[in-house]
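2.7 Reproducibility. Because tokenized structures are sensitive to small changes in the input, we list the exact sequence used for GAF domain-containing protein, including any N-terminal residues retained from the expression construct. No trimming or masking was applied before prediction.
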Amino acid sequence: MTAAHPHLAAPIDAILTTRQAAHELGVSISTAQLWMESGALASWKTPGGHRRCRLSEVARLQSSGQGGATAPRAETLAQEFIKPLTATYPMLESEQLRLKALAASGLIDSPPDPLFDRLTWLASRMTGCPMALMSLLTSERQWFKSRVGLEAAQTPRDAAFCSHAILSPEGMVIEDAWADERFARNPLVLSEPYIRFYAGIPVTDRQSNRLGTLCVLDAVPRQLTDDQHRALKELAALVSDEISRAK
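Resulting structure tokens (single pass, no recycling of outputs):
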């Protein structure tokens, strides 16, 4: 016999209204609506236009660390998965789909992962760069799931080199940021961590949505050898494989 949920007295994978989902998550109805619309909480619309979701999806969101947050924090996070009407950074044409996939991954603000930390460390060692990051891009910030050689846990999205790197499946290499008009006045170039060199390869989910990058950085201009560039690509592929397995 299927177990009953203590609050709803319904099957464990019951269909919930937006109000019921909000109650289970401990957030406002407006926050639950934002999560449903952005894809952070998987849902569908009835013929009458009302949102519905499964209780199992509510449980998945709670296990990711987002459910149960205070309503103001939850609503702020939900907004990060909505494509901005205007932005000072470049975006993919599929930016809203990308943000929806990022929300569904549950990676943003999740705890450290030893596997991602090993891959980031290897990226630094194999390329000889003092800084390496697994970077994920919401609409407002660049958040580092893993980082080596950098104290900051995130930066504003409009300062992110990775916003440019995800525009191509091949990523991007900047040998000297001072010589590139896109980045010469970037605050991450003019102040800590004083980026001069950047190389980033997109990391993707199972549907090939580019959620962010595996990137390496240096405070001096430099180049990667062919082998180092290949190593960075292979490590980014391993990050993507792990993201796909976790979904």
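The longest strand covers residues 210-218.
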